[in-house]
Design goal:
Blueprint: E1 7-10, H1 21-31, E2 36-42, E3 46-50, E4 55-61, E5 64-66, E6 69-71, H2 74-81, E7 86-91, H3 94-103, E8 109-113, H4 121-137, E9 140-143, H5 146-151, H6 153-156, E10 162-164, H7 179-189, E11 194-197, H8 206-213, E12 220-223, H9 229-238, E13 244-248, H10 252-261, E14 264-267, H11 278-285, E15 290-293, H12 299-302, E16 309-312, H13 317-329, H14 331-348, H15 351-376
Parallel strand pairs: 1-2, 1-7, 2-4, 7-8, 8-9, 9-10, 11-12, 11-14, 12-13, 14-15, 15-16
Antiparallel strand pairs: 3-4, 5-6
Helix pairs in contact: 2-3, 3-4, 7-10, 8-13, 11-14
Length: 377
């Protein structure tokens, strides 16, 4: 790419308004790819920058949201005006598909396919024709694991242009908590607790985590906010699960402190909406053993059963309780498994590896477009 190549990431939400794992991954790629920016929707129209490398963000006003699909037609004009060399959309986002078809002007398109639509079955029937048109227009479709390629009926239709690029994170993006913060966090939560970090959504399986924690000798810390918070607090209260602590939203520094102090990282997601699980990579990075469920997605690629942690049946409080109990009763085993996890992180899941793979993909897409134009002449 001898000329300036501008990569524009497009997703329905972004930092700082929304702080989920997917937003973090988009920032990771954008910060490590030259001339990258983000187009998104937000509560109000704004232009700003985020991250240590000041990634530019252009947010159009979000008009409303339906079934987690954010809508705001200002983004269509934003895409139309943009000088992007490649649009990189993160899917599923039905309105994003429409926005590209209306405003993308057929420019090169990379789609990272993060998840099948699982919950909204009726809406998915209506969405399917739009999604099919959008994916057919994509130059490349990226899956985050071979597991998801093998199990997704949607990706099966596009095998010829699907590539696998695992998610990755950079250790230098995470702050080092101060001694005072570590001490304060330990005073409040203790140490050697089981830790969940993430947005509290329906597919995270947190009700099973709470049921598994009842009358156990260790604490379970649930860090994050989301639409399930009220229901989960009520469940913990009804079950008298006094060892379950809701930390609410935590800053990056607080999250690192919790990671340092916990015994194991737990991601009990029980539905395929959980395609990968950034918190699992964070657990590997901090040398913590993992507990996750076998749901046929990338979570079981990140967490290798018997090597980096336990992979258990989904929606099974008994299996979850046994897995947490194993690491609680065997601290040396937990450390040994966590050390293997750190090795797996360094081998497969660094942000640099992910960014290099995407840079190559962008070059390949542009070269393919140039070759096609030359052939037509």
């Amino acid at each position: 790419m001898g000329v300036k190549t501008e990569i524009v990431h497009c997703y329905r939400t972004f930092l700082p308004e929304s702080q989920g794992g997917l937003e973090q991954i988009i920032l990771e790629v954008a910060q490590n790819t030259a001339h990258s920016s983000v187009v998104t929707l937000a509560a109000s129209k704004a232009d700003y920058s985020v991250g240590r490398r000041a990634v530019p963000v252009s947010a159009s006003k979000r008009w409303f949201s339906v079934a987690s699909c954010c809508v705001g037609f200002g983004i269509v004009a934003n895409l139309w005006r943009h000088s992007a060399s490649v649009f990189h959309f993160h899917s599923p986002w039905p309105f994003g598909d429409l926005a590209y078809l209306l405003g993308g002007r057929s420019r090169p398109l990379v789609v990272t396919y993060h998840s099948d639509v699982v919950r909204q079955k009726l809406l998915n029937v209506l969405y399917y024709p739009l999604m099919s048109c959008f994916l057919a227009r994509a130059d490349r479709i990226v899956a985050t694991s071979q597991n998801y390629v093998a199990s997704s009926p949607v990706l099966a239709k596009y095998r010829g242009k699907v590539e696998v690029i695992p998610l990755g994170i950079s250790e230098e993006e995470y702050p080092e908590p101060s001694g005072d913060l570590l001490a304060a966090t330990e005073r409040y939560y203790g140490r050697d607790f089981m830790l969940f970090v993430g947005v509290l959504r329906y597919y995270k399986g947190l009700e099973y985590l709470i049921r598994a924690a009842v009358e156990q000798p260790y604490r379970v810390v649930i860090a994050g906010k989301g639409p399930e918070l009220g229901r989960l607090k009520a469940l913990a209260n009804d079950l008298e699960a006094s060892n379950v602590v809701f930390a609410g939203f935590v800053s990056d520094e607080e999250k690192v402190a919790l990671m340092n102090l916990c015994r194991a990282v737990v991601l009990p997601s029980h539905l395929r909406s959980e395609a990968f699980g950034v918190t699992l990579i964070e657990g590997l990075m901090y040398g913590k053993p993992l507990i996750s469920c076998e749901i046929g997605t990338g979570t079981s690629y990140v967490n290798r059963d018997g090597e980096t942690g336990h992979v258990i049946p989904p929606a099974n409080p008994t299996a979850l309780r046994e897995a947490m109990g194993d690491f609680w009763r065997n601290p040396l085993k937990a450390k040994r498994v966590g050390w293997k996890g750190r090795q797996r992180y360094e081998k497969l899941f660094t942000g640099e590896q992910m960014a290099v793979a995407y840079q190559k993909l962008y070059r390949d897409v542009l070269n393919s477009r140039e070759d096609m134009q030359t052939w037509r002449k």
